[in-house]
User: Fold these one by one.
Assistant:
Number 1:
Amino acid sequence: MTELSRIGVTGLAVMGANLARNIARHGVPVAVHNRTAARTKEFMEAYADEGTFTASESVEDFVASLERPRRIIVMVKAGAPVDGVIEELAPLLDEGDIIIDAGNSHFPDTNRRTKDLAARGLRFMGVGVSGGEEGALNGPSIMPGGDPAAYAEVEEILTSIAAVVDGTPCCVHVGPDGAGHYVKMVHNGIEYADIQLIAEAYDLLTHVASLDAPAIGKIFEEWNTGDLESFLIEITGIVLGKTDERTGRPLVDVIVDQAEQKGTGRWTAIDALDLGVPLTGITEAVFARTLSALRDERKAASTTLAGPNPSNEANRPDLVDDIRQALYASKVVAYAQGFAQMRAASEANGWNLDLGAMATIWRGGCIIRAQFLNRITEAYAEHGNIENLLMVPYFTEAVANAQDAWRRVVVTATEQGVAIPAFASSLSYYDAYRRERGPANLIQGLRDFFGAHTYRRIDAEGAFHTRWSQDGTEVRTDG
Ligand code: NBP
């Protein structure tokens, strides 16, 4: 009889196949399965010699090939397919077996599945895996959520396959229920903001600094040696430097300017609205992709709507470095907002998230991996429970140093008619956050006028209403 496998992977598209290979390469026998058997066959033909694999065509054989408690990674398309696979697996499993959903599931689905399966005696884990296909194969950032006792059963395998930075694996138990998928969702949201900020910098360098793609690629290469050093800045340099084989032009110049999305950025923004957390950077990034998709409308508007045409008149010697500083300051804001959102979610759900540990496991393997995350890890180590990263001296100072350049970039872009939704909204957030008294007093006054919604006074306790349409007197409404 063949040896039982320590873990199984069902779903052998690019992510599942690479995770299975990564696990097997670490000496762990892996059972593999896919709905369409041909894919399993292809997998075995290509990779069987990389480790100890047991392939099964049927779910029954797959389950029977696993040691107990069974540990099964489900790596299929998020949504209904995950429920479908669970329904096939669950009747074949025994109490205490563990189903691990390592796809990009929406965290409320993970909460629901955890509860449903617990009622059936099964343990369910929602595990965020970041790093794309390359990460899955060579070391992703892993964000496991679920029952800590279930995590203990897979910890060794998951930490062994994760990316490692400074000797620390990029894998830590995040929290119960959907906490792992939640943190992965915010990670992806931050990725949206990072990418949007890079795109805005590229737009300004193209249309105001009048540089071509290869020249801008060189600038990103240089930026990757400083504060901005990160995977996304690095690959921006590579993508901008690529020449299109068909036309000989820079490849980016022949790519259609419509951004697609799979939904994690939108989920992050919706969750922020539900939690009441100001999350302007990520949300603007989602809207920017949505606006980019309106290609036909934009084409019509481009010859109808008035505005300045960007010109290099605004080009000045310090423009490129100003843009770098604006990018850095806006990035600090996007991360500050994302971490504030995770803090709020942790409190709302009783997850007790260790936010410093989240920054630590994002330092390697994942798409937003960056030097910068070390500063966030250090901030949490030094200051503990942080309300807003902008208030940590390192970031307070970094943004203070960048703010003049940041303001100049926002002014220049606005004068030149270049859209910079993430740069500008990040600066507005910064300016609103640092105000002791903002203009919401007037909002409350208006709400009281048209809806008797009441207001509070700065000089007295209680809720008040002015009888606007009667005698204009003020009454206390709460006692
Ligand atoms: P896909 O998201 O493209 O899903 C394809 C896999 O799902 C195939 O194995 C397919 O089986 C299986 N599947 C589907 Br579709 N419907 C099914 C059903 N009803 N029952 C059983 N299996 C079903 O694969 P992927 O790109 O490898 O991503 C897997 C997960 O990882 C997703 O949640 C994704 O969001 C997440 N993720 C992807 C990346 C990335 O860079 N691609 C990064 C991080 C996370 P078949 O072969 O029979 O059609």
Number 2:
Amino acid sequence: MRKKIVAGNWKMNLGFSQANALVHEVLHSQVVLPENTLVIFAPPFPYLQSVQAVLIGHPGFHIAAQNCHEQESGAYTGEVSASMLQSIGVGYVILGHSERRQYFGETNAQVARKARRALASGIRPICCCGETLEIRQAGRQQDQVHQQLEESLGEFTPDQAAVLVIAYEPVWAIGTGLNASAPQAQEMHAFIRQWLQSRFGREISEGVSILYGGSCKPSNAPELFACPDVDGGLIGGASLVAGDFLKIIRSF
Ligand code: PEP
């Protein structure tokens, strides 16, 4: 059975003490995670270890990095490698977020290289895809997502594909307050699962968790998470407020 996941992408937000307070508040709420459910915090790099330390003894809670470099090591000032993340116990890494594509020019080919590097270090990539507003308005959203999937994940082996997490995040919904409707999300998630099946077979396609991201909040999470192919959410703004994040976790 595939995992249900709620992942909080903090982006470049929160001071150190706020970050710790947020994690403590979530953990002290005594939230009971349903079986087969994971909660992932993706803090900025400098907080990974301290958040990780707080999570010890809380099964089902994990940390993710928000990015990694595609090389193993070397003269890449300011960058962080997957093996460095692995060495401090990071289990997941978000790759190909639309903000990295938009502000840092990240391409599908780079996402593929980063994901392979992460996998080689034993880190599960949370690979993001999603169409822009113009593309959605032109009705070509499946074409764009198909191209992203092909170019970033198409060369994976079935074993590599089996440990991926995919996040469908329509760019027009990220941080805008506008979310995809449940039917829009379900349609795209089913399309992504169909792509996984055509590439890697039915067993793998049924095992990969596909998360929805884009203005997911307590008011819309229950409807979105009730869709058969939506296995949880990648949450930006609402993950910065413990009460909202908890309500989203409880939406399952
Ligand atoms: C995100 O950046 O991954 C995201 C989904 O942001 P928000 O929830 O704020 O739209």
